[in-house]
Amino acid sequence: MRQLFGTDGIRGRANREPMTVETALRAGMAAGVHFRRGDHTHRVVIGKDTRLSCYMIEYAMASGFVSVGMDVLLIGPVPTPGVATLTRSMRADLGVMISASHNSFEDNGIKLFGPDGYKLSDTVEAAIETGMAGDLSAARVDASHLGRVRRLQGALGRYSEFCKNIFPRNLRLDGLKIVIDAANGAGYRVVPEALWELGADVIPLGVDPDGTNINRNCGSTAPGAMQRAVTESGADIGIAIDGDADRAVFADENGTLVDGDQIVALLGDWLNRRGKLSGGAVIGTVMSNLGLERFFQERGLRFERTPVGDRYIVERMRDRGCNFGGEPSGHMVFADHATTGDGLIAALQVLAVLVGNGRPMSDIAHQFHAVPQVASNVRLNGKASLASDTVQTVLASSRARLAADGRLVVRESGTEPLIRIMVEHPDGGLAQRLVSELESAIRLAAGDA
């Protein structure tokens, strides 16, 4: 069983367990041992976002890898998908991204990628946890076999060129005005530059990181500034990425936010009409709207759901031979190009559809009629048990009242201390009432009423 690893790696408050120097050091050692195979010179790529605590975690992990005989390539602030891409292209044995994604700067996290560029399976993460809990003294190599550390120059350029080469060669962004909010995070330099180099008139926001302002009133989780900038500047589209640039959300030319499921529908249908959708299906999550599922069914395509998290989407895509999937939060996975969610690639694909259609974003942003959906995050002082009699009674009652016309998802967040609730039903009022009842039951069970 995994205790440290959650939905997306290890995550927590910086300088508190599990995001301490000691744990990061052991994570480096245990992961290094797991991926140390053969007699070749092993190496690991380490990237990070712009949090102040990244220095601490970066050097601690590097020390752990060096102590077990692995060379370390430090690439500095770079999007999470950039680490995945460079790990594979440079034939590294392991990739590490130090980031807490959309969380505030006080948090940090560790994401690991295998030599194929994919996030690790639950089984591999569990094996690394077992190694971290054991005696690692035998893993230390002789002084003559210690690894080396160096900074890799040009990493952002490699990643940028890779992404730009995916954009259709017969299209340009000339004449397009784009607001891009980089969340003061890992993509603050590479994403605006890539769009500008493809011809766009770029209005950058969130490109002045100071170590503590990542995701603060900016980025995909707070897109209001991006939306206002679109209307004030007369831009054609707004794009906001998150702290590690593996997701993107969009606004049309009126500053209206476009739901992530509508983007999945837009891109999935675009790929299908061009004969470039593999596997006869699009992969989403339990949080994807029922209207999206019906949209693809009407087009003769399957829509399959996974647990929340782009790595679960990727696992299903690989299992089914599919090449596209996404979730409402803005994670979009294009398996022909990337092994994980990629905010820059998603932005470029949406821009390709926009330019190719020659129509305003507002004309193409509404692909289906969504079933009314109410979502809530319950942050608790105490520990809530979803198995408690109180919660289970309300859950059973809610499911009975929804019957076959709606959906209910209640789950613990894998990245934050939250209980997430989502209810869908054609009667939006009923959905809201059920959410309120579930909120009260969960707080009562946690002694936080």
The span between the termini is 31 Å
Mean pLDDT across the residues is 94
Percent range for β-strand residues: 15-25%
Task: Specify the helix fraction band.
Answer: 25-40%
Give the number of helices: 14
Which stretches are low in confidence, meaning pLDDT under 50 for 5 or more residues running? none
- Output the strand order for the largest sheet: 1-2-6-5-3-4-7
The largest sheet, given as strand count, sense and whether it forms a barrel, is:
7 strands, mixed
- What general outline do the C-alpha atoms trace? globular
Describe the structure.
This protein is 36% helix and 20% strand. It has 14 helices and 19 strands. Helix 1 packs across helix 2 (54-67). It is globular, with a radius of gyration of 22 Å. The protein starts with a strand and ends with a helix. The mean pLDDT is 94.
Q: Quick summary of this structure?
A:
With 449 residues, the chain is an alpha/beta fold. It has helices at residues 21-35, 54-67, 80-89, 122-133, 155-164, 190-197, 224-233, 260-273, 290-297, 310-320, 343-357, 361-364, 389-402, 428-445; strands spanning 5-6, 9-13, 43-48, 71-77, 94-98, 107-113, 149-151, 177-181, 201-205, 237-241, 248-251, 257-258, 281-285, 302-306, 324-326, 332-334, 373-379, 407-412, 418-424. The longest helix has 18 residues, at 428-445.
